[in-house]
Every structure is written in C-alpha cells, then in structure tokens.
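yo

u said u wanted the structure for the complex thing, so here. seqs first:
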Amino acid sequence: MPYSQGDLILLKNPVKLPGGAELKHPVLIINSKRGGYEQYYTGVMMTGTPKNDRYSFKCENQMFTSPLGKESCEFRTYLIFGFNEDDISVLKNTMKKPHLIALINQIKDYIFNID
Amino acid sequence: MTYNHYNLQMTITHPYHLDPFYSNRLFSFKVIFLNTTSRFWKYISLNLNSFRVGIISGLYKDLGKMFLMVEGLKGILNSIEDLSMAKEEYIYAEKALIKFRKYYYLLEDVDFLNHEGIKDISSKILLDLYEIESKLKFLSFDNPKDIDCDKELRQAASLISINTMNNLHAI
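structre next:
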C-alpha cells in the first residue's frame, strides 16, 4: 500500500535497544513520494514526552484527520530517519496540510538551514 | 525596533508586541456566530441571510487586515537579535498562534463557509504565525542541555535507518 506525505504510521517491528527494551514510536512521513525502486520513506519521530525546546513541534487533535488519543504529543524535528515500506505496520492517522507544511518548513529552516 | 521597507515603517512599541489581534473587531464573535449558524442554517429563517452574508464579508475583511499585519510582523522578525526581547515576544507569538488556530479550527469545521478567499487567507495567516513562532522559539531556546533525554529516540532512529540501508537493494 503506498503511503503519502503526512501519514502518521507505526513501524512493524519495534526497535530493540541494546538493553533489550522495545521501542514502538509513531512516525510521520515527510517526503513527498516514495524513493522509487526501494520504496524508501523519510519520517520524523513523534513523542509523548513534551520537551518544549527549539526542536519541538507541539501537536493537537485537530491537526489530524482523527483524534490522536493522547495528550501533549510533539514531533522532535531533528529526529529524522529513513525506512522501507515493508517496515510499516499500520497507518494510524493523517496530518492536515497547513500544519504539515509548517512542520516541514520548521525542519527545513532550523534543521537543514535550507533557504 | 524598526522595520524599513519601501519607505514603510513598522515599529513594535509597548504594549503591542507581536500580536496580530491588535484591536477589537468582534473577530471571535463573527467566527463563532458563523460556525454555529452554518451547522443549523437550513433551520434558521432566511430573513437572516443578508445579516449572515454581511458578517462573512466583514470577517473576510478582518482576515485581510490581519494578513497584512502578520506579514509586517514577519518582516520585523529579521531585526530581532536581542535574546531577552526574543524570549519576551515568543510568549506573545505562541499565544497568537494558539488563539488563531482555535479560530482556524472553527472555520475548518464548517468548510470555511464555502468561501475560497477565507480558506486561502486564513491558511496563509496560520502559516505566517507558525513561521513567527518557530523563529522566535529557535532564538529563545538554547540548544537543549539535556539532549540525553532523547537518547532512546535517537538510538531508535539510527537503528531503523541502518537496518533500512542494509536492506536496500539498488538496481
């Protein structure tokens, strides 16, 4: 199933940390199209632990097509990484356009410094 | 602090700050009234139609004025270098963003009253307010000292990326 920019997904397998703990975080797809043959996506991590610093982008239920089901979520704008389509477990939600543009602009301006 | 551009001057003086809601134009009343009446419009007497159209027209004008204001505030941002001023203005910018977002949700809830102009201009204002807020946020906060609080997330992001790279099969 092709996913789109703005889709909030969960990855299929939680990441196992060296200590053995499993992490299963929601991730927002920020690239506009799949990376061709490899079906490669780029995502930014969401967390439920608010930091309120220069790298946070606070979320509200109304920014998405359906409620998040959790209070005080935010994106960590510097935690950007790549994954395959096969790694995606489920589509949880979709972010609405103006908020998505604002998030991507913040990443471009303050993480990559693109003019 | 002054912003000069094409002989225009815009100045922030106390007590105005970076706040586009600078005067009482019954903005909140208009948005809430239109949100409510749009839901029940077919049940309300059509005698109110011209009244409602007038309010929509007034709201569109208010949004136009607010857009000009926000564009001007964006220009002023480039001249903010003082950290204490950035911190002070960030509070107002964040409040303005949260406040406008509430109105935006109300308008979005009724499909922007089927008015393309209102949809377009309120989206632009929202994006401008996001830009102002993020710029001041970046100036106001230092690099987080407790970056280790994101250690697990960073580790997870790295591991996922490495696994993905290992699984890529280039042609």
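The interface with chain B takes residues 11, 15, 17-18, 21, 23, 25, 37-38, 40, 45, 47, 49, 51, 53-55, 57, 60, 62, 76, 79-84, 86-87, 96-99, 101-102, 105-106, 109-110 of chain A (CB under 8 Å). Chain A is about 10% helix and 35% strand.
cya
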